[in-house]
Amino acid sequence: MTHLLFFAVEGIPCALPLADIRQVVGMVELQPETGKRRGGAGTMNLHGRTVPVYSLRSLLGLAERPPLPTDVLIIAHPPGECAALWADGVRGVQESRVQLPPDASPSPGALPTEEGEIIIHDLGAFLAAEETAHHLLPAGATVTGGAAPPHDAEKAGEILAERARAFARPEKENGETPFSELLTFRLAGQEYAIKTQYIREVFIMHEITPVPGVPDFIVGICAVRGEIISVVDLRALFSIPKHGLTDLNRVIVLSDGTVTFGILADYITDIYIRPTDQFSPIEPGTTPIEQRYLLGAIDESVIALDAAAILADPAMVIDQTRK
């Protein structure tokens, strides 16, 4: 089953096979490029390597706008090169709902769906296409405009320049260091991370059926592709204080091949690859979550959860979710 990373461009949902993606990073200050490529927005220095950056707005025939610190660069590896796609933000990871064509399709490398999504199943072919792919846009998509939302242009420029300098620094020669792909999400005002190897999919929350007689951290059950799974509220499980309003409109489905259940999240914030030895210890009193469920902290603010430990806890699931 193919897993897709979903992201947005001018509100239009797009997706790329997760296997094609190296990492997702925040937008940086771009450098002018020599020559001209269809959709080319400039280049970035990725630890000494010049990576071409493609504007998905340009590739899809949408109006251009200046880059913002809230934008993302999806660094992928089409055949023979490394390239970065400029998008508005990441929406999450889920299994493909459509059959991806092996080669030929009406638009090289991309497939529009009935839900108005654009699935880029062959990035190399999509980037090599000679014509703008505006025919992939859903009905009603706006191709004019291009104005950036209100922002402090000077501050934005400083952030983008600092990020560019950080990514230009050479990587340490630590070839033996293992890496983990992480998905980060927001819950009750705090950002958390989980290794994507334990994530089956992410979906917008729909109807959840309450179940009597279960622990209060299990909010109920729901059907996912014909399978009944329990849904867990980590706030109740770990006694996480509630801070203001919360959306809880995403369900992250965790699985280790034996146990499967969902956890609630406000929204997905990012997905990226990180060395596993860069988790730092979590200071006492930072979180009420027990140490056995923690991998450590990332950049002093993101709490990395141990999905394997959470999945292994027999109290986390109800009978219907065990195979």
UniProtKB/TrEMBL annotation:
Domain CheW-like per the UniProt entry, residue ranges: 1-148, 179-323
GO biological process, one term: chemotaxis
One GO cellular component, as annotated: cytosol
Pfam families hit by this protein: CheW (PF01584)
Superkingdom assignment: Archaea
Family annotation (InterPro entries): CheW (IPR039315), CheW-like_dom_sf (IPR036061), CheW-lke_dom (IPR002545)
Record protein name field: Chemotaxis protein CheW
Biological source species: Methanoculleus chikugoensis
